Amino acid sequence: MTTHSPATPGRASEPSPSARLSRGIGAAVRRGLARITSDVIAPYQSAVIRIGFSLTWLALLLREWVHRNELYGADSPWSWAMAREWNMTNRAFTVLMWHDSRLWFEIVYVAAIAASVMLLLGWRTRTASLLFMIGVLALQNRNLFVGDGGEDVIHVMAIYLVFTRCGRVWSLDARRAAHGRDGGRDVVGIVMWAFFTAVLALVTGLGKLDTGWALLLWGLVFAQLAWWLVRRYGPGEPRTVMEMVGNVVHSGAMFVIAAQVCLIYAVSGWYKVQGSFWQDGTALYYVLHLDDVTPWPALSHAIANSSLIVLLLTYGTVIVEVAFPFTLFNSRVRTIMVAIMMSMHAGIGILLGLPFFALAMITADALFLPTALLRRAGDRVARAVSRRRAVVPTPQVPFRATGREVRLHGRASSLRRPNR
Amino acid sequence: MDHVDRGSRKRGLSSVSVSIIALAVVGVVVAATVHLAMLFLNSAPWNSFSQQHAADIDKYVGSEFAQEWQLYAPNPQSVNTHVQARAKVQMPSGTLTDTGWVDLTAMDDERIVHNPLPSQAHQNELHHAWSNYVDSLDNEGRPVGLYGKLMQQYLLRIVAHRLGPQVNGGTVQFIQLRSANTPVGKPPWSVQQIDTQTSYVVQPWWAVTAEDFK
After folding, report:
1. H or E element: which one contains B201?
2. Do the Cβ atoms of B120 and A141 come within 8 Å?
3. How many angstroms separate the CA atoms of A130 and A161, rounded?
């Protein structure tokens, strides 16, 4: 693309430093472009966050099953009419505002659970991610005042995941593709698409959608149709182009997700630095004495009683939060940092009684794990599963072999597939 | 080797295809940059740029990307706030009597303690409603704007749901709330000590309608 004309005609054999620099930058940009267009970057990392966030939300929905009506439904102190009045001001999108009935709420809640399972398993991942996002927004935007940081993380991540190709590995979709059933007619997919499109047409006709959301949802519906068409009828260049565009969008979304996680840590750290309790190293003492975040008061108070432990934990928290974004450039430091962050969040989840926030943040941390480690962990899980299956005497497709195919599939350049 | 391979394949694409891909790259780069800049400005302290573009930033971030990451910052709370309620009930004889104070937060805390999976209904509902309501008050202690009005109504309804329409054999007519604020106190190793006496902030009586219990 770039032409390499020498800076001055007389010194053609020896390019000037600036020319070398620009050539270097050009080469780097070309390499980067080749990488983000020709392949799905970070397939394992995107799969791990897909699994993690859908699992967190699924667990939360199941945990709150008995409280669902009080939190988001017909029995909520935040009544449907109040929610509508408030959502008119901030234009928050929730399908629960489409109808004020108990039945509609129950359908949406169950559908949100189903969408989480779909996304967790990576079954029709594209559709699943869209339904997952709709479910998350439906419930959270119905009552914005009962969530904590964990819900905030899931809220934004559910939107970002729609734009990632997060089902390339560790998913039922990947297994289908590995078995060569990717280009099939896919009756289930067509039925789901038709149903979704019919509902979308209905609500668009009834004027229940904002322009922005209508554009986004219709755009995604048509993108899926185009995908299906090129998979079936355009295996050459059209498919290659769509794969590449998909890869570019995926790369952008993954970058945004990574930056979002950094922003969470950075903001959290920067504001702590300004606080006097974080400065004098006593902040943890106060947190461990707040009644609503001490499910294990004896343990919390015991930890809080040691001035040294409180000091170390308080300073340690600020240090790792502020440092986090800057440690990402070195892979070894990054992995250590992720381990620290995961332990910190596990501790918060247990000690402060915030398990869903902790799970969401541990998932966010897992985004920065190295591929080799994720694959090793995945293999170990696959082996454990296949061993358990081997006990049951049923003829099986060996799971390990499938796992390997999946991996190859994930790594294989998508460019090569059309020429298969 | 791999890159050369990919590059040559890319060159094999028609110019239309290459422009579509180029357009996608530009679009994604612009979208990601704008998005992250907006999120950053939304989270960063108030600065000269965000002052000028506050309306645009708020509009972009909206409620879908709104986020609050000042977790226990700048300082964690150093006071345990308990929301307590009492009711003015009408007895069958027609007389109005006041009930005693009920500590609703203590009831929530009882459900949180020794529970590895506390519910948002006990952890956040009343707690957030109370702090949102208090934040919406002006200097004279009146809720401001639609937000204030809704937060007062929300809080009243939470309490109404928890007390129920009948208390102590009478029908609830009015509800009054107060916060019992108990400072955690300085750590034992600290040289300075503060008073950890509980203080109360009492809200006015609020009339309750049958709707509020639904």
Report:
1. strand B199-207
2. no
3. 8
Which pLDDT belongs to residue B203? 95
Return the half-sphere exposure (C-beta side, CA atoms, 13 A cut-off) of residue A12.
4
Q: Please report which helix (H) or strand (E) contains residue A38, including its range.
A: helix A17-38
Instruction: Quote the CA–CA distance of B190 and B185 in Å, as a whole number.
Output: 10
Identify the closest residue of chain A to B12 by CA–CA distance. Answer: A237
**Nearest CB neighbour to A285, from listed B40, B154, B187:** B187
d(CA A39, CA A248): 9
Can you tell me the distance from the alpha carbon of A78 to that of B153, in angstroms, rounded to the nearest whole number?
8
Distance CA A326, CA A334 (A): 9
Return the C-alpha torsion angle A222, A224, A230, A231, nearest 10: -170
Is residue A120 within 8 Å of residue A62, measured between CB atoms?
Answer: no
Q: Is B188 in Cβ contact with A283 (below 8 Å)?
A: no
Q: Which two three-digit tokens encode residue A33?
A: 């472009």
From A241, A268, A355, residue closest to B70, measured CB to CB:
A268
B6 to A413: CB separation less than 8 angstroms, yes or no:
yes
Single pTM value for the model: 0.90
CA distances from A373 to A247, A254, A332, B49, B136 (A): 23, 19, 12, 42, 49
A29, A57, A285: best to mutate for the B interface, most B CBs within 10 A: A285
> Could you report the per-residue pLDDT of A4-20, keeping only the tens digit for each?
444 444 445 677 888 88
Determine, for residues B184 and A286 on separate chains, whether the beta-carbon distance falls below 8 Å. Answer: yes
> What are the boundaries of each domain within chain B?
2-61, 79-213
- Number of Cβ within 10 Å of residue A320's Cβ equals 16
Q: Looking at the complex, report in whole angstroms how far the Cα of residue B61 sits from the nearest Cα belonging to chain A.
A: 10
**Which residues lie across from B199 on neighbouring strands?**
B181
Which of B31, B116, B120 lies closest to A295 in CB terms?
B116
ipTM of the complex: 0.92
Q: What is the pLDDT of residues A181-232, one digit of tens each?
A: 766 778 888 999 999 999 999 999 999 898 999 999 999 999 999 988 988 8
Report yes or no: A40 and B120 within 8 Å, Cβ to Cβ. Answer: no
SS3 category, B105: helix
d(CA A382, CA A210): 44
